[in-house]
Specification:
The protein contains 3 helices and no strands. With about 80 residues, the chain is an all-alpha fold.
């Protein structure tokens, strides 16, 4: 009878730490646009409203495409 080599399971904290790191990076990029509102809008010569509209649209598109990206990821 052949025996399969057993591999030790990874500790749960490693998986949780990696997931937290990935979420922190992804959400950090998305949620810190408010910090750059004044510098970017003044550098580009735009009003705060224009840049805020762009940020709002980005969040709407992010939310609208999330179910489709999730469906593709689940395949």
């Amino acid at each position: 009878m052949l025996h399969k080599a057993e591999t030790a399971p990874k500790p749960l904290w490693v998986v949780i730490l990696c997931a937290a790191l990935i979420i922190s990076v992804c959400m950090g990029i998305r949620q810190t646009f408010g910090l750059y509102l004044d510098p970017i809008s003044s550098k580009l010569g735009l009003g705060r409203e224009t840049f805020a509209l762009a940020m709002g649209l980005q969040n709407l598109v992010w939310g609208a495409t999330a179910p489709f990206a999730g469906a593709i990821a689940d395949r």
